[in-house]
Amino acid sequence: MKGKFPKTISQQPLGNYLLLLGIAVLTFVCYHYSLENQFTNWDDQRFITENIFIKSFSAANLKMILFHDVTGDYYNPLTILSYAINYHFAGLEPRSYYLTDIVLHILNCMLMFFLVLALLKAMARKGYFATDNGQFAVHKKWIAFFCTLAYAIHPMHVESVSWIAERKDVLYAFFYFLGMIAYLRFTEAQTKKYVWLVCVFICFLLSLLSKPMAIVFPFSLLAIDILLKRDKTSSIRNIIFEKLPFIAIGILSAGATYISTKSSGAVQEHQIFTFFQRFLFASYGFYIYILKAFIPVFQSSYYPYPQLPTPGSSLPFLFYVSPLIALLVVAIPLYLSYRAGENSFRIVLFGLIFYFFNMIIVSQIIGAGPNIMADRYSYVCYFGIFFPLTYFIYRGLTKRKSLLIYGLSGISLYLVLFSFLCYERTLVWHNSETLWTDVIRQYPHQVIKAYNNLGNYYFANRDLDKAYENYKEAIDLKTADPQVYCNMGSLLGAKQQYKLSLAYYGAALKLDSNDALTYLDRAITYSAMGNYDLAIKDYRTSSRINPNSEILYRNIAYTYLNAHQFDSAINYYTRVIQINPANPGYFHYRGVAEFDKGSIKTAMDDFRQNLVIAPHDSECMFYLSIAYNRLSDFNNAYKYAEMAEHAQYSVPADYIRLLKAQIGAGE
């Protein structure tokens, strides 16, 4: 085998599938720990745990998913629909969602394998491998294997796979790569060409409906045209004309997305950084993403903007030289490849165009988010790096066969390192604590969101002291985020420091008087204080701002129950049951409201439904016993009292004796 690429597998009829199996197994091994991960408090609530529209396939929910932006992020109905399917089969079991993401990522890698093979075959027909003396036919599968494997286990892609809220990345990429494969069939078809173009367009639409980043798809098709020398066989006018429907839909989608994200706050306006500074950030990101493609270290889930002492301060020197570095990153490969010949120039141009357009959409010239860059933005655009790189490594090793074994050994060790870093990165996404602790470790006293969300994690787990420390750190960083003050108000309310709690809610509402969550949390605090009138007033305000909140209906129903306004409590529990009929507690508390109102038989129906969903709910068994006792059905009252006692509920001994006496008296 010395001096030759491995042939055995690639010459077998099932060679492609064995190589694909190897990629799938290695990828799953790298990502398998994600199956143990939990939901995080970074957008997983909006997309899954608190998203009322995924919790049933009702006509109303499907209408909202398919025709509205239900997350306040941007319109991505296919992604939301995929969550609804997960929820239908597994509820809020995180493993199901992570497994779906891993499977989608593996499918994307398989598509990439076939995409690389199709590109290589098309390139061979265009003369790219004319000097290989027939070796290409054997080696193309190995080129596809190494290119795909590097993509599959690259650590920069962990964020897209191991963050459930980023399902949109792996889903839009699936249709994106599928569309590129269909486009290659279109360029080669002799008959029914435009049937394939329709298939490409459908894939483009499905990709857009998964994530609007797909708007740059027509530029990826133009990159393929350059690679395959279509300008020599077809007029530029025809090539552009083919892309017009894609460009038109892309422009409409871009406009709608900008309006949606601007209104939700996802697009950062220019009052903090000037356009020139944002150009510097975009230049910086352009070459840093490329650097991380080769050296994926110092990864973070959140890369903050540089801290400036005052708004008019200068940026660090590195940012001012970033346009020059970015220009050199483009110019040097283009110059060297131009000197090497047309084929080399075209493949470098293909890679740079693909990378540039798939990266520019998330560059910080517009401001796609509160962080200067994000690992997830590399998910599709890295194909523009890995494909040309694998091609040139192949050409280099076949020209210097004496280095072949050393080259393959080095590449293999490099990929082993990738796999280790990939696995290690999945551990960071285990839960909200590991996620935000990692960000704070890398950027101490800089990222307000990290301290706020870590505080939320500790608050949810009743570690109030740690929650307080993190909220205070976020406030000390001079945050303008009203949610931080709201969270501190909720925490102090939980500590029964009500006066201070209400002051923080007031500070939050000064920053944003239209924040539904602040009114909701303050209502919960008022309810805990026993001030039900003010609580209900805030609930109603929150409901006007955000009328589709399960947590809102749940809490307002509980407040009405405590206020002994049973009809209102029953109405709101009915509404929340319509949203989430799988929650046994909703039936339980509606039953309590009905019981206290005097509707005993109706209450019993709800208690029974509670036990259908949660058959070991001992408290519900006891309530059902009380209901039977109220109806003088002492045998069933005794039966359910015994069941509750066996299920570890503390049933009063006097109550048991009373039931036995009643049964004895009846006999």
Quick structural summary:
With 667 residues, this protein is mostly helical. It is built from 32 helices and no strands.
Can you describe this structure?
This protein has 667 residues and is an all-alpha fold. Helices cover 72% and strands 0% of the residues. It has 32 helices and no strands. The chain has helices at 8-11, 15-31, 44-49, 59-67, 77-90, 94-125, 136-152, 158-162, 167-188, 193-208, 217-227, 236-264, 275-294, 317-340, 342-360, 378-381, 383-399, 404-428, 432-442, 448-460, 464-476, 482-494, 498-511, 516-529, 532-545, 550-562, 566-579, 584-597, 600-613, 618-630, 634-646, 653-666. Helix 19 (432-442) packs antiparallel against helix 20 and helix 26 packs antiparallel against helix 27 (566-579). The chain is elongated, with a radius of gyration of 30 Å. The protein starts with 7 loop residues before the first helix and ends with a helix. The model is unreliable at 5-11 and 266-271 (pLDDT under 50).
SSE blueprint:
Blueprint lengths: L7 H4 L3 H17 L12 H6 L9 H9 L9 H14 L3 H32 L10 H17 L5 H5 L4 H22 L4 H16 L8 H11 L8 H29 L10 H20 L22 H24 L1 H19 L17 H4 L1 H17 L4 H25 L3 H11 L5 H13 L3 H13 L5 H13 L3 H14 L4 H14 L2 H14 L4 H13 L3 H14 L4 H14 L2 H14 L4 H13 L3 H13 L6 H14 L1
Helix pairs in contact: 2-6, 2-7, 2-18, 4-5, 5-6, 6-7, 6-9, 7-17, 9-10, 9-11, 10-12, 11-12, 11-15, 13-14, 14-15, 15-17, 19-20, 20-21, 20-22, 21-22, 22-23, 22-24, 23-24, 24-25, 24-26, 25-26, 26-27, 27-28, 28-29, 29-30, 30-31, 31-32
